[in-house]
Amino acid sequence: MAPYMRLRQICLVAPQLAPVISDIAEIMGLAVCYRDGNVAKYGLENALLPVDTIMLEVVAPFKGGTTAGRFIEKTGGRGGYMAIFCCNDPDERGRNANAMGVRTANMIDHAPYHGVQLHPRDCRAAFIEFNHTEGSDDILGPYPPAGPDWQKFIRKDVTQALTGVEMQSPDPQGLAEHWGKIIGVAPEGAELKLPNATFRFVKGAIEIMSALEFRVADRASVLHAAKARGVAVADNEFLLGGVTFRVS
């Protein structure tokens, strides 16, 4: 199989799913495709919304002592939780990360799905996960974390694509190079360009996944919908689920 690396999913974390999920769905014109019972063993509940072929997930802890709960406490609820990539060989990416001193935090095996999650402290800024679904190299093929028929829930009349992820760091170039080595994509300046999205690394006081960038059909109507939901809007952006949603 030819090597490939694509952004598959962005995971945000919130103290509760409501009203974050309904706000995202209403403002961005997206639909929930799945709620995954498998995350309950981590003390979490979740919901996933497809943005074309990239999943946008929100998780929320329903009990104390969860990793997600500690993330919220540590960050004050600011910053994206996880960047999830599909690739041809997650184990190879995991071994490469381990050789850099980035520890494996969790292995997920739900055949035909296999995932390798890396330790957020070693990744810096957010969790990184690599996964592969056997027989699913088509971008519209099966992806078990999103449910059996996620493709039917794609809505493009409002939001057309998730195009970029902004990462903040006091040393953006250093973080870009670190993530580039983990992911296996050479930085172009302070950017990592994947076939379906670009990670941009910018100056910031702390290391976080700070913003998501979307291409929308009508920017003004999305910003109007955000205001109607009581979300504060500045220029072309607003804060939801701990990250800035930026629309163009």
List the helices and strands and how they pair.
Blueprint: E1 5-13, H1 20-28, E2 44-51, E3 54-61, H2 67-75, E4 82-87, H3 90-99, E5 104-110, E6 113-118, H4 120-123, E7 127-133, E8 159-169, H5 172-183, E9 191-193, E10 198-203, E11 208-216, H6 219-228, E12 233-234, E13 237-240, E14 243-247
Parallel strand pairs: 1-3, 4-7, 8-10, 11-14
Antiparallel strand pairs: 1-4, 2-3, 5-6, 6-7, 8-11, 9-10, 12-13, 13-14
Description of the structure:
It contains 6 helices and 14 strands. α1 (20-28) runs antiparallel to α6 (219-228). It has helices at residues 20-28, 67-75, 90-99, 120-123, 172-183, 219-228, and strands at 5-13, 44-51, 54-61, 82-87, 104-110, 113-118, 127-133, 159-169, 191-193, 198-203, 208-216, 233-234, 237-240, 243-247. It is α/β, with parallel strands linked by helices and 248 residues long. The termini are far apart. Helices cover 22% and strands 37% of the residues.
Given as residue ranges, the uncertain stretches (5+ residues, pLDDT < 50) are none
The coarse overall form would be globular
The biggest beta sheet, please? 7 strands, mixed
- The tally of strands reads 14
Overall radius of gyration: 17 Å
> For the terminal residues, how far apart are their CA atoms?
36 Å
Q: How are the strands ordered across the major sheet?
A: 2-3-1-4-7-6-5
Average pLDDT over all residues = 96
Structural class: alpha/beta
Order of helices and strands: EHEEHEHEEHEEHEEEHEEE
Strand content: 35-45%
Number of helices: 6
Name the helicity range. Answer: 10-25%
